[in-house]
């Protein structure tokens, strides 16, 4: 357990050597889990990366209490994520095949997994709305006033800036709503499009 505590501290510091070692120690079991259960190697890599993000957020929030080994914890996160992904894709899920030890995950870990899915969906469509809209919405999300946004963007009036913001936001929201992943997340009650102000 002391080694796991040291590993967690190194992850928080962003130590690349620790992440490489964690990959070598944990990824083979994740790869095997995903490949045995209707997945591809790319799926396993995605799931593992997402699990590391969940782990990092838990460490950073200082609310991670390990009741098992770190590798068991990561495996449990990945298994949960893969099960959820299979369910959302309407693939038949009975008993998922895997031979690793598991631990029950806290509700906040599950919530973090869903937030990662939401954020990935948001980022995907944010990248598709064009640089002008990205800059305008970023300024807006940072809490800049419409007067300041008008100046920064070089618009002729605040009214025009408001109209552009509305159009950019609408383009972003529509892109998200039209994405099949939105319906998958919505069915799980995990995505609230109204959180995009």
Keywords:
elongated; Rna Polymerase Sigma Factor, Chain: A; disordered C terminus; 197 residues; mainly alpha; 2 domains
Compact description:
The protein is mostly helical and 197 residues long. It has helices at 2-13, 16-36, 41-60, 70-88, 107-126, 131-141, 146-153, 158-178, 180-187.
Can you put this structure into words, describing what you see?
The protein is an all-alpha fold. It folds into two domains: 2-105, Rna Polymerase Sigma Factor, Chain: A (Orthogonal Bundle); 118-195, no CATH class. The chain has nine helices and no strands. It has helices spanning 2-13, 16-36, 41-60, 70-88, 107-126, 131-141, 146-153, 158-178, 180-187. Helix 6 (131-141) crosses helix 8 (158-178) and helix 7 (146-153) crosses helix 8. The protein starts with a helix and ends in a 10-residue tail after the last helix. Mean pLDDT is 80; it is low at 91-97 and 189-197.
List the helices and strands and how they pair.
Elements: H1 2-13, H2 16-36, H3 41-60, H4 70-88, H5 107-126, H6 131-141, H7 146-153, H8 158-178, H9 180-187
Kindly identify the CATH topology of the largest domain.
Answer: Rna Polymerase Sigma Factor, Chain: A
Strands, count: 0
Q: Which consecutive residue ranges, at least 5 long each, have pLDDT under 50?
A: 91-97, 189-197
Helical stretch tally = 9
**Helicity, in percent?**
over 70%
Class by SSE composition: mainly alpha
Distance between the termini: 43 Å
What is the overall pLDDT average? 80
Number of domains: 2
Question: What percentage of amino acids are in beta strands?
Answer: under 5%
For the largest beta-sheet, the strand count, sense and barrel status come to:
none
- What sequence of helices (H) and strands (E) makes up the elements? HHHHHHHHH
CATH class of the largest domain: Mainly Alpha
